[in-house]
């Protein structure tokens, strides 16, 4: 998993994306009930598992309700059978805390903004 995170992070940096800003896991960030360590672990899961099928853009632009995230993740669960339930729960909490109606939508470079959000709809 560390290799996948490195590759995803490297690709993002090459596109001018500040991973730490888009996937904020600082103590003053929107980490909900997670510790910063749990947040980083969940971020790694998103970058490793979700980006194996699509870019992270539709994920971070989705701004879903908690029920919306539950429905989307349930529909995608079978795509990642190797993910443990603990990882799945941690990632679900991460997504609900970071990408919802109350948090600002992350600003991405124009080339990534143009990828759209319909992949995560």
SSE map:
Blueprint (H helix, E strand, L loop, with lengths): L1 H13 L4 H4 L13 H14 L7 H5 L4 H11 L8 H14 L11 H4 L8
Structural overview:
This protein has about 120 residues and is an all-alpha fold. The protein has one domain. The protein has helices spanning about 1-15, 20, 35-50, 55-60, 65-75, 85-100, 110-115. Helix 1 (about 1-15) packs across helix 3 and helix 3 packs across helix 6 (about 85-100). The longest helix is centred in the middle third of the chain and has 14 residues, at about 35-50. The protein starts with a helix and ends in an 8-residue tail after the last helix. Mean pLDDT is about 80; it is low at about 1-5 and about 115-120.
Summarize the structure.
It is built from 7 helices and no strands.
Notable characteristics:
mainly alpha, 7 helices, 121 residues, disordered N terminus, globular
Average pLDDT confidence is: 81
Count of discrete alpha- or pi-helical segments spanning 4 or more residues = 7
Give the assembly state of these chains: single chain
| Outline | globular
> Spans of 5+ residues with little confidence (pLDDT < 50)?
1-7, 117-121
By secondary-structure content and strand pairing, the structural class works out as mainly alpha
Counting DSSP E segments of at least 2 residues, the number of strands comes to 0
Please report which band the strand proportion falls in: under 5%, 5-15%, 15-25%, 25-35%, 35-45% or over 45%.
under 5%
What portion of residues is helical?
40-55%
Helix and strand run: HHHHHHH
Q: How many domains is the backbone divided into?
A: 1
| Amino- and carboxy-terminal Cα gap | 26 Å
Q: How many strands, what sense, and barrel or not for the largest sheet?
A: none
Radius of gyration: 13 Å
């Amino acid at each position: 998993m560390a290799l996948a995170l490195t590759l995803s992070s490297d690709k993002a940096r090459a596109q001018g994306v500040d991973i730490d800003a888009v996937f904020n896991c600082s103590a003053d960030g929107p980490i909900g009930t997670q510790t910063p360590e749990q947040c980083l672990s969940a971020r790694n899961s998103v970058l490793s598992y979700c980006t194996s099928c699509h870019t992270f853009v539709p994920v971070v632009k989705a701004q879903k309700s908690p029920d919306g995230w539950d429905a989307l993740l349930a529909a995608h669960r079978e795509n990642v059978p190797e993910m443990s339930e603990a990882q799945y729960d941690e990632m679900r909490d991460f997504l609900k805390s970071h990408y919802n109606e109350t948090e600002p939508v992350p600003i991405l470079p124009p080339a990534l903004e143009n990828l759209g959000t319909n992949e995560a709809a």
